[in-house]
Design a protein that fits this description.
The protein has about 250 residues and is mainly alpha-helical. The chain folds into two domains: about 70 residues, no CATH class; about 150 residues, no CATH class. Helices cover about 60% and strands about 5% of the residues. The protein has a two-stranded antiparallel ribbon with strand order 1-2.
């Protein structure tokens, strides 16, 4: 028993003095092997089954050493890859200049107000439907003017060629034809919807020169106008007609 205590105290004192080589420039694997060799030499007579703990690694650094288990290693977190936003999408809407964004949102009121009033009153009002169609046709003319004006400056990416100038007149033609058949209000509304769709398609795919934030605004306006016109057509077929008549 006395021999066992003396042997253990000698080994402990040697461990405190770090007899095994610990060099700052060496790798962790060298330090681990040195510590294992030292433990096997000093404690193998006392603990013959010390090899059971050989699977545990001892990591050394400049100041301290610590004992770790293989199950304690954390998995590396995968770096989150943020996909780039595709062009011509509504995700660029927050990038819009504040005046353009606020004016565009205010410009949606004439599209939304007529069907909202008719749904709340459960009555189809031809005058409100006509004002909604007229505003949509006027908006088509505005889109044609935007394309024409965008192609005029010398520094503009859209040149004043036949492609740009001819496409700027297309929404105006749909607007004119919608007013021409305004006696048949449902057909006029459908004509405005078609004009808005063709104008959006040409601006996003045929003439991709507008800034992305302007394309996002165009997508927003087209979607709101489309659904507002659809609601108006549904109200005409569901609710009875009433209210003031539109001027003939």
């Amino acid at each position: 028993m006395f021999f066992f205590i003396q042997k253990f105290s000698q080994a402990s004192s040697k461990m405190l003095k770090y007899p095994f080589p610990v060099r700052l420039g060496t790798s962790r694997r060298t330090d681990t092997l040195s510590l294992k060799t030292f433990l096997q030499q000093k404690f193998s007579p006392l603990f013959p089954r010390l090899w059971l703990f050989s699977s545990y690694s001892v990591c050394m650094n400049k100041r301290q050493y610590y004992h770790t288990s293989p199950c304690c290693f954390k998995k590396k977190q995968k770096e989150a890859v943020i996909p780039a936003r595709p062009p011509s999408t509504i995700t660029y809407l927050p990038d819009s200049p504040k005046p353009a964004l606020y004016i565009t949102l205010a410009g949606l009121i004439p599209f939304v107000a007529p069907p909202l009033v008719m749904v709340m009153t459960k009555t189809y009002i031809p005058l409100l439907a006509f004002t909604q169609m007229a505003y949509g046709a006027s908006f088509l003319s505005f889109l044609g003017g935007v394309r024409w004006g965008f192609a005029l400056p010398e520094s503009s990416p859209a040149k004043p060629d036949f492609l740009n100038l001819a496409n700027s007149t297309t929404p105006v033609l749909f607007s004119w034809f919608a007013f021409l058949i305004c006696e048949r209000l449902s057909e006029a509304i459908v004509m405005v919807i078609i004009g808005l769709g063709i104008a959006l398609h040409s601006e996003l795919f045929l003439l991709p020169h507008y800034p992305n934030w302007f394309k996002a605004l165009r997508i927003l306006v087209t979607l709101v106008a489309f659904f507002s016109f659809i609601i108006t057509l549904l109200v005409k077929n569901i609710y009875p007609e009433g209210g003031p008549k539109r001027p003939s």
